[in-house]
């Protein structure tokens, strides 16, 4: 009798399983962080002699900070471009019906689900075909193309939560389409847009699969780390990875707060579903 | 009058233009180029010959190695999906029905790793699995083993665990979304009608959550299938995946047309899997 469905009682087995799943998600990162403080280097158990030396080493690593600077340049440009394309794309998907809309949506979201290697090499072929030399510019174009998909879905989620009556009121009071967009729609979407921009920025700072094929002489941060990893892991890599992790978590947390306003990330699920089912109808 | 309706129509079409042009230039054109390249070839001086030939595709069909690698990639992706579902479905169920007061925070704790640096997470597993890595030295320290376990790193095992870690959130989120759409009254009436909890789960909850399962699994499958970084970082020769073949042909092996042909094959597999899962989803929804 007692085991009838009650949503209030917590099944112990399920809760402990969930705890294990969270451990699987976070323990590897905890280990990474712990070993960034280990004087004896990457690995070796138990960790002994905790030290901040690796961070000190990292802070005087000029090449690494140069790469951080490059990544920041790329990320800012990629944010600007993907917002400029993603906003009208989301607006279109939210407001209009036109022939080929499903195909339009499918195409713009494609980089989310197509392996980075394909996006990377096809853009490489375009760059070579148009005589563009590989540089941070080609990386920016790659990031913008790949991340417009993310920007579009997140902004689209913002649109679908919007209270349309305010826009209708604005139109009734004689504002034209631009005035309504500028004075009503954009301010209402502000937090969602800022959240999207932060998310795209973070993703661009971390992007590696597409960048791999489009990079010129100047390395972005993930590529700099990658090229050093091929030579072997060092505790300095743990230190920079720890900093990247902390930075990303902070940015993503804030961004999801801004986008979701209490129901964070629903759009992420909706996004994947929309992509797989093609359900924009 | 007609001029103004024309203008109005132009205004409404205006926002479509930038994304449309961008897609045409940076998605559609590159894919077309990829397609073209796959029909070209390189000569003995590694210069690209722009004569249409089926040689690349014939080479792919007649060299068993490519089929082996494609099958291995599908197998690895399938393992990742199975593990992600085994781990992710109960977690999603917990989040949807039993997370309690801290539900919001627990939910965020799944979203954050969805977006957090791929490189950092893959690297974390290298730190754990390495020969001198944390796991091996831990086992030695515990005297659980006499020698470092070599199979941990540079094996399909390491690649599968790492990719599962990376793509679990992609499975959890859509499943949570579809579980939350299930009307609670349905669960209550099922138990009122005398169904045991596991019967309610098998007959009501599981079928209704399948759309989420399908879309999450598709994501995890396709992204794992096309991954080339985890095999490079953690896999050995026995875990080379098909995207690595493309990366090599565009890198050291320098045969872009052949690489393009392999990429087209990957793209076709991706599209085929997408359309199958779409059909599955739709049938499920109408059933």
UniProtKB/TrEMBL annotation, chain B:
Domain (ABC transmembrane type-1): residue spans on this chain: 70-277
Signal peptide: none
Keywords: Cell membrane, Membrane, Transmembrane, Transmembrane helix, Transport
Any Gene Ontology biological process: transmembrane transport
Repeat is among the record's keywords: no
Domain of life: Bacteria
Residue stretches spanning the membrane: 20-40, 52-70, 76-97, 109-129, 149-179, 200-225, 256-276
Family annotation (Pfam families): BPD_transp_1
GO cellular component, one term: plasma membrane
Places the protein is found: Cell membrane
Topology of the protein relative to the lipid bilayer: Multi-pass membrane protein
Family according to the record: Belongs to the binding-protein-dependent transport system permease family. CysTW subfamily.
Protein name: Spermidine/putrescine transport system permease protein
Organism whose genome encodes this protein: Silvibacterium bohemicum
């Amino acid at each position: 009798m007692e085991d009838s469905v009650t949503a209030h009682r917590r099944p112990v087995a399920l809760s402990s399983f969930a705890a294990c799943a969270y451990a699987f998600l976070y323990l590897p990162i905890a280990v990474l962080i712990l070993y960034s403080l280990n004087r004896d280097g990457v690995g070796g158990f138990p960790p002994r002699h905790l030290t901040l030396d690796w961070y000190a080493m990292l802070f005087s690593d000029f090449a690494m900070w140069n790469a951080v600077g490059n990544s920041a340049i790329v990320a800012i440009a990629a944010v600007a471009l993907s917002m400029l394309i993603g906003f009208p794309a989301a607006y279109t998907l939210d407001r209009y019906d036109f022939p080929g809309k499903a195909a339009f949506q499918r195409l713009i979201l494609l980089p989310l689900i197509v392996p980075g290697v394909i996006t990377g090499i096809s853009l490489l072929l375009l760059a070579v075909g148009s005589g563009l030399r590989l540089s941070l510019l080609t990386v920016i174009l790659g990031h913008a193309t790949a991340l417009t998909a993310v920007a579009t879905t997140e902004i689209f989620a913002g649109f679908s939560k919007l209270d349309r009556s305010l826009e209708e009121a604005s139109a009734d009071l004689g504002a034209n389409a631009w005035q309504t967009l500028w004075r009503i729609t954009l301010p209402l979407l502000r937090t969602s847009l800022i959240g999207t921009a932060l998310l795209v920025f973070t993703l661009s700072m971390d992007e590696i699969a597409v960048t791999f094929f489009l990079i010129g002489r100047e390395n972005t941060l993930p590529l700099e780390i990658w090229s050093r990893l091929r030579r072997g892991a060092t505790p300095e890599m743990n230190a920079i990875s720890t900093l990247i992790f902390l930075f990303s978590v902070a940015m993503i947390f804030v961004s999801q707060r801004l986008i979701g306003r209490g129901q964070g990330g629903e759009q992420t699920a909706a996004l994947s579903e929309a992509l797989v089912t093609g359900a924009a109808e | 009058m007609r001029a103004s309706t024309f203008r109005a129509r132009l205004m409404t079409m205006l926002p479509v233009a930038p994304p449309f042009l961008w897609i045409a230039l940076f998605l559609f054109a590159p894919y077309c180029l990829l397609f073209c390249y796959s029909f070209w070839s390189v000569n003995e001086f590694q210069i690209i010959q722009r004569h249409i030939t089926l040689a690349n595709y014939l080479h792919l069909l007649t060299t068993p190695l490519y089929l082996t690698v494609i099958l291995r990639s599908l197998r690895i992706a399938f393992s990742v999906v199975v593990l992600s579902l085994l781990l992710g479905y109960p977690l999603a169920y917990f989040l949807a029905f039993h997370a309690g007061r801290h539900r919001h925070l627990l939910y965020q704790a799944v979203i954050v790793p969805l977006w957090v640096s791929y490189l950092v997470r893959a690297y974390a597993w290298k730190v754990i699995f390495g020969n001198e890595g944390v796991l091996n030295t831990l086992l030695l320290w515990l005297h659980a083993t006499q020698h470092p376990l070599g199979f941990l790193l540079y094996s399909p095992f390491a690649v599968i665990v790492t990719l599962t870690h990376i793509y679990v959130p992609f499975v959890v989120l859509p499943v949570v979304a579809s579980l939350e759409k299930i009307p609670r009254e349905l669960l209550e009436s099922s138990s009122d009608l005398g169904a045991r909890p596991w019967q309610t789960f098998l007959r009501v909850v599981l079928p209704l959550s399948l759309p989420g399962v399908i879309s999450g699994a598709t994501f995890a499958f396709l992204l794992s299938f096309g991954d080339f970084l985890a095999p490079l970082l953690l896999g050995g020769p026995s875990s080379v995946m098909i995207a690595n073949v493309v990366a090599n042909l565009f890198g050291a092996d320098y045969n872009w047309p052949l690489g393009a042909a392999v990429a087209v094959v990957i793209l076709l597999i991706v599209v085929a899997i997408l359309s199958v899962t779409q059909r599955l989803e739709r049938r499920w929804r109408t059933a």
